Amino acid sequence: MKRLPFSRQMWLSKHASGHCAVGRMMLMRKKWTHSKCPRCLQDNETNEHVLLCTDVWATEHWEKLTKKLDKDLVSMNTAPELRRMIIRKLYNWRRRRRITAQITNKYGEREASDHQDKIGWTNLMLGRMAPQWAAAQQLYLDWLGRRTTGKQWIIALTVKLLNISWDMWDHRNRILHASTHPWNLLKVQELDLKIEDEYRQGYQNLQRKDYKWLHRTLAATKKLTTEVKQQWLTSIHLSRQTYERNTTAQYQAMRSERSTMIRWLTGVPPRTTENQTEQANGLA
Ligand SMILES: [Zn+2]
Minimal CA–CA distance to 77: which of 145, 26, 130, 9? Predict the structure, then answer.
């Protein structure tokens, strides 16, 4: 973990414990009204789903990452038997297949793989590796006569796998936040309707100093970014609320003047609750 940048360390602890902002958690925290995966739109998106999502873009991205992993394993002097085993097992895990054919056991890779089956391959992607991997690679390095150790190799491999997992999460977020995502298009539509409504209300109940909010044309306001539109709506709402509060306060402040006026005009004290309160207060 120490080999990862701090932000990825934070991400990993959340991701490994299932507390990152996946659909399932967003629904539980009531931030979303659903638990859907932003890529394939399936319900109940979990941290494991981020790695296993079968959406076309997700699959393409995964394949690109594992192709690179395969190359990296070669440059890390990985025993070819171990490299093939890891790549094939990851391939099957993502397709939810259980194929055990063509299993070699030259350096103990079968024991490593069997143990990893028990720990789980999702766990491997989050850095929870069977210890036999390092021992098997050590045997290969000894045979090659290299000075590097199986332990160094497994640390380097763990960092690579964690970065792949992070990359899949990042890919999911890039799709989620793209302006062309159907959810975002829907949000834009909703905001535009609210903006149109504000323009219809016009300067009504708007404080003079806030007329500026309507200086831009409706078309120009609709072209603003989602974030700016939200700020615009909040500002104009606040301005109308303040206007209403001020006029109500002004109305209430003139209460005693109104009572005096009614008494003077009619000769009778007004029979209103207002007057009764004033009498109770000893003002009448
Ligand atoms: Zn998905």
Answer: 145
Assess whether pLDDT exceeds 70 at residue 177. yes
Asked which of 128, 143, 176 is the last residue of a domain, the reply is 176
What φ, ψ does residue 38 adopt, rounded to 5°?
A: -65, -15
| Any domain includes 50 | yes
Give how many domains the chain has, as a whole number: 2
Instruction: Decide which of 176, 205, 239 is a domain's last residue.
Output: 176
Model confidence band, residue 130 (pLDDT cutoffs 50, 70, 90): very high
Residue 263: per-residue pLDDT: 80
Query: CA angle 222-224-230, nearest 5°?
Result: 90
Kind and range of the H or E run holding 280:
helix 273-280
Residues spanned by the domain of 98? 6-176
Measured in angstroms, how far is the CA atom of residue 1 from the centroid of ligand 1?
Answer: 27
Do both 171 and 274 map to the same domain? no
Closest among 193, 201, 182, 202 to 222, alpha carbons compared = 193
pTM of the model: 0.71
The CA 183 to ligand 1 mean position distance, Å, reads 15
Q: Is the domain of 25 the same as that of 142? A: yes
Task: Please indicate, yes or no, if residue 168 is contained in any of the structural domains.
Answer: yes
Q: How far is the CA of 40 from the centre of ligand 1 (A)?
A: 4
Q: How far is the CA of 18 from the centre of ligand 1 (A)?
A: 16
More confident site: 209 or 172: 172
pLDDT at 66: 97
Q: From the CA of 103, how far away is ligand 1's center (Å)? A: 31
Taking a 5 Å cut-off on Cβ, the residues next to ion ligand 1 are: 37, 39-40, 53
The alpha carbon of 250 and the centre of ligand 1 are apart by a number of angstroms equal to: 56
CA of 67 to the centre of ligand 1 (A): 21
- Dig out the tokens for 161 from the structure: 């796998």
Q: Percentage of the chain with pLDDT > 90?
A: 63
User: Is there a single domain that holds both residue 15 and residue 113?
Assistant: yes
What mean pLDDT comes out for the span 38-58?
Answer: 95
